[in-house]
Write the structure tokens for this entry.
Amino acid sequence: MAKQSTQFTKTFRDGVNARLKFVAFLFFLFGVALIARLAFLQIVQHDALMARSEKQHRSTVTTHFGRGVIYDRNLNELARNVEVESVYVNPAEILDRKSTARVLAATLKLNRDKIYKKISSKKHFVWIKRKCSLDEVAKLKKAELPGVGYVSEQKRFYPKRELAASVLGFVGMDNQGLAGIEHAYQSKLKGITFRQVMAHDARGRNVQSLDGLHNSRLRNYDLVLTLDEVIQFIAEHHLKKQVERFKADSGMAVVMNPHTGEIYAMANVPQFNPNHYGAFSPQTWKNNIVANSYEPGSIFKPIVAAAALDGGAASPQDIFFCENGELKIGKVRIGEASDHKFGWLNMRDIIAKSSNIGAVKIAQQVGKKSFYQYIRKFGFGAKSGLPLPGESAGQLRAQENWDAMSLASISFGHEIAVTPIQMVNALAAISNGGSLMVPHITRALIKNGRVLERSKPEKIRRVISEKTSRQLVEVLKAVVKTGTGKKAALEGFEVAGKTGTAQKYNAATRSYSKTEFISSFIGFVPADSPRLVILVMIDNPRGSHWGSVVAAPVFREIAKKVLRYLNVPSNKERVFILDRA
């Protein structure tokens, strides 16, 4: 019995020792594995883990400062920056999420459920609203909400509101140019981007202030435009007034210096406020003067006259039979825009009275090939080169693709589409002695008060001779003195120009509308020594559609006030000055 007990005891002890050895062996393996893991983490993955640790305790805040100022030609600010504050939260520091969400939503006019979702995030930095108003920030700071912080930023501000908005464009939340000059010159105006790393403690609380994040004096370049804010206001005011009076769809006006190509005003109606561009239809953001093309109608007739005179196909005294109001080409009947039926007219009277049939007769004298070449020389069918986004080249079919009616239709401004900037630049060439100039909207690039680049007048090519230019000036003066442009006449100044009333083409019916028109007037003043070329186009006016009634008076009002603003002497004043000299 004792022997059996001793044997059992020995067996039990052996089993216990085996278990202990097995457990010890397991601890040994665990220790080896732990040491190996620590060695792997500390040696092999040290850099990667340190980076991850720092990332978990850091947030990167990006802000933008110092976007360049945009000036008019007299250094009046058209676009600048203002200091604002943006609101963020650190969810780890928020004590009462429901209450915080309610106050943030009510003060910042945001959706409470969306705010609650944001402040429930596991992130340590969450934007709530960027670039808040002063009133919003003041109310929030008064509430002293835990976990709510503020970052200083700069917001783009347009002090003149709607003035030249379609030219200037606007910027996005991160100060990136989205339209107009702001977009075209983004690389120059963009300013400085700041990225600051914000640290957090183990609980996710901010331990580094965002104060002093910015330096508003830093920026890339400032831009000076050729626009004059006074002339821009005059053009916009009178254009808007006429668009409203005739309940038109839209309107455009351009004021240019014909000798330099500098654009003093570029007006589009309807307007929008770039400070709140999101509240307006995207259609109002477009600068239709460069982005859209239109069939010009009778304001294109000076081009066919120029081709005839310069090419020697006709002279101002040559007479043409205007078929008593009806001309057939094949099966197509061409009539006059008005009820007038003209017989024999010379070139001067054809343009003055705006005879469609007379224009066709002149074009037939010129011929397809020569007419097409002059159209191209005047810049039609090609972009003007203005540094504005979305510029159209218009529509001009290659001469070999013209059909039997093309020569006739184009002579009075149909079957061709031009942009307003092409049209005003072409008439500038007629007025200045025959040179097509590069149109300019920018005047200088400035950095730290020093001019780095300055735009200079640049001639593209000579289009017509000086003799042809003088002849056309006399022809276009007759339009205002005795023809369709009488309402453009200006006391004390001789005006040269041309009216236009173009039927709008309906692509759906493939025919010209009998109820929708583009009414226009284009001219220059003083006629013999032009300081201004002005184009006015009004789209789909109601009540009257004649360019002589709708557009010519706007030309007169703009010209009258701009000439006075520029101190251009009238005929009587020039005579007085000469007499005294």
Summary: The chain has 21 helices and 20 strands.
